[in-house]
TrEMBL record:
Stored Pfam families: HSP20
PROSITE patterns: SHSP
SUPFAM superfamilies per UniProt: HSP20-like chaperones
Full protein name: Hsp20/alpha crystallin family protein
Superkingdom field: Bacteria
Domain called SHSP: residue spans: 28-142
Family: Belongs to the small heat shock protein (HSP20) family.
Alphabetical list of InterPro entries matching this protein: A-crystallin/Hsp20_dom, HSP20-like_chaperone
Gene3D superfamilies per UniProt: 2.60.40.790
Organism: Virgibacillus halodenitrificans (Bacillus halodenitrificans)
Length: 145
């Protein structure tokens, strides 16, 4: 059984007793978030770097972007080495579902994700809505009659 599942059940019982918002500040301590994500931005782009070690099948990770939210779903699976005993295990693994709020809305038609050396690199482009674009208005000279 997943030890984090037991902790989740324990947390639900405590939420019932203390209230739903009580444990929010402890979320990263009770179950550290995976995968780890770094988010960088320029004026017009967002770059996200997601740590997913040992990913051999790219279809085991789903990436969704909705306006200004990045959603990651999948599994981090590290193959055990047969015939050995684990002495220390710090690399978190298992099923994950994570939402990350982006610093600004992004375009749905310009997204790119690549994977190399255990990292997914996601490039997103800023959405500039039609209502906020500057449009140049030409001035016409009217004849004086």
């Amino acid at each position: 059984m997943d030890p984090f599942q037991q902790m989740g059940d324990w947390k639900k019982n405590m939420d019932h007793f203390f209230g739903d918002q009580f444990w929010n500040e402890f979320e990263g301590i009770i179950k550290p978030t995976i995968p780890h994500v770094n988010v960088y931005k320029t004026d017009h782009e967002i770059f996200c770097v997601v740590s997913i070690p040992g990913l051999e099948d790219l279809h085991k990770v789903d990436i969704f972007v909705d306006y200004s939210t990045l959603e990651l779903k999948g599994t981090i699976d590290i193959e055990p080495i047969s015939g050995i005993t684990v002495v220390k295990e710090e690399i978190l693994q298992g099923v994950f579902e994570r939402k990350v709020t982006l610093p600004f809305p992004v375009r749905a038609d310009k997204m790119r994700a690549t994977y190399r050396n255990g990292l997914i690199y996601i490039q997103l482009h800023r959405l500039i809505s039609e209502s906020s674009r500057k449009n140049k208005v030409n001035i016409e000279l009217l004849d004086e009659d």
